[in-house]
Specification:
Aminoglycoside 3'-phosphotransferase, Chain: A, domain 2; binds adenosine-5'-diphosphate; 43% helix; 5-stranded antiparallel beta sheet; binds 2-acetamido-2-deoxy-1-O-phosphono-alpha-D-glucopyranose; 3-stranded antiparallel beta sheet; binds magnesium ion; alpha+beta
Length: 368
């Protein structure tokens, strides 16, 4: 963590929050922003908030990102108008206004900060425990997309251009191998060979999108398992988090990243890739939850590519981690040397495991 946590008391004063600042501690395991759980005291009662220090190199202009989040959460709140306000506030993120009347503290010294109401009695998981959790997570992400299918607010900005342009991700990997600024490529012969052999995979969804066979929708684009809250008491999917990348995209990007993050039985950065054996029971639950959540809006051709999307998003993420390892770990936060190398190897092992079990997994996709 950077020195950002030390700024929390000053940042607290900039938001419209009742009571006095009590404490802040690092929270969650995201790789991009810095997230803190902030406690305030109001009338003798502790209240919690999520404060996030936005990553300035990845979101150099945070204003369109925040506008997207406002538009999306406004729309979701309208769609959930039938719920009580207490229930709605557990199902949609609530941004805390700043004293200047916006939703972002944009400070030359402290950087860019936002604050959310903390949703109590809920959990996220880095590693899945049961297939039922996969079903609930996929149902929540699918429902999120379904609720946004009639979004009619101001156009959403593409906050991170080419985010899932897998061909460009492949090219960036090749460029990093060729540049090899830290001399790390010599330790990665196996991974480089794996990537080269899988180049055709990088073109699959991009080509289907270009041909018009697969439609663009408003998608989340970062559907990893720890970006959805499950109710701690009931286990039900509650609230979709991490809305920085909500923008036009493919449903299969969302489904594929769920496969990547939920079907892997070990940690994303597991140093032993031989332990990565994709879970079929979890894949089956993801398919059922996502098809239900999206209210059967997926086209037959999208359903036919559900498994491929898992392979593709695992490949894409592996390319991204390895590109970052080669380039000196400038994008994904690391906590130890070679962590991005381990993350990349784990993703490639998942691609291989999904390929090896392809026929078994395809049985879990209902025939259209
Ligand atoms: P990052 O960009 O760092 O991944 P996230 O928005 O995903 O940040 O938040 C990190 C973690 O903080 C989540 O995985 C979740 O556990 C927790 N979290 C985020 N927002 C909330 C919230 N409003 N209420 C409860 N927990 C939250
Ligand atoms: C990042 O922000 P976080 O940790 O939820 C990344 C995703 C990757 C993921 C891999 C904006 O997600 O694209 O799939 O790490 N987010 C961004 O764990 O790049
Ligand atoms: Mg996150």
């Amino acid at each position: 963590m950077s020195e950002a946590i030390g700024f929390a008391p000053q940042i607290f004063q900039r938001f419209v929050i009742d009571g006095t600042y009590h404490s802040a501690r690092p929270y969650g395991s995201g790789h991009i922003n810095e997230t803190f759980l902030v406690t305030a005291q109001a009338d003798g009662v502790a209240r919690h908030y999520i404060f996030q220090h936005l990553n300035a190199s990845i979101f150099p202009d945070p204003h369109p990102v925040m506008r997207n989040i406002q538009h999306v959460t406004d729309h979701l709140r309208k769609k959930l108008a039938h719920l009580s306000s207490g229930e709605r506030d557990r199902r949609v993120l609530t941004l805390i206004p700043t004293r200047e009347g916006g939703v972002l503290v944009d400070d030359p010294l402290f950087g860019n900060w936002r604050a959310y109401r903390f949703i109590e009695d809920a959990q996220t998981f880095d590693i899945l425990e049961t297939p039922q959790q996969a079903f609930e997570a996929a149902l929540a992400f699918g429902t999120f997309q379904h609720l946004l299918s009639d979004y009619d607010g101001p156009p959403l900005v593409e906050t991170t251009p080419d985010f899932h342009h897998t061909v460009r991700r492949f090219q960036a990997f090749q460029a990093a191998v060729n540049a090899d600024p830290l001399g790390r490529a010599c330790t990665m012969a196996v991974e480089i060979d794996f990537a080269l052999r899988h180049e055709p995979l990088a073109h699959t969804l991009i080509d289907l999108k270009a041909s018009g066979a697969i439609p663009e929708r408003i998608t989340h684009n970062d559907t990893k398992l720890n970006n959805v809250l499950l109710d701690a008491k009931t286990g039900q999917g509650l609230c979709v988090l991490d809305l920085d990348t909500v923008m036009p995209g493919l449903s299969l990007y969302d489904f594929g990243d769920m496969v990547r993050s939920a079907c892997n039985p070990v940690a994303e950065d597991c140093p032993d890739p031989s332990r990565v054996i994709a879970r079929g029971d979890v894949f089956e639950a993801l398919v059922a939850g996502y098809l239900k959540g999206t209210a059967d809006a997926l086209r037959p051709i999208e359903k036919d590519h559900l498994l491929l999307s898992g392979q593709l998003l695992s490949f894409e993420c592996g390319l991204r981690f390895l590109t970052d390892h080669l380039s000196g770990d400038t994008y994904f936060r690391i906590h130890r040397p070679s962590q991005n190398l381990d993350r990349g190897r784990t993703q490639f092992a998942l691609v291989a495991s999904l390929e090896a079990q392809c026929n078994d997994f395809l049985r879990f996709i209902p025939r259209s």
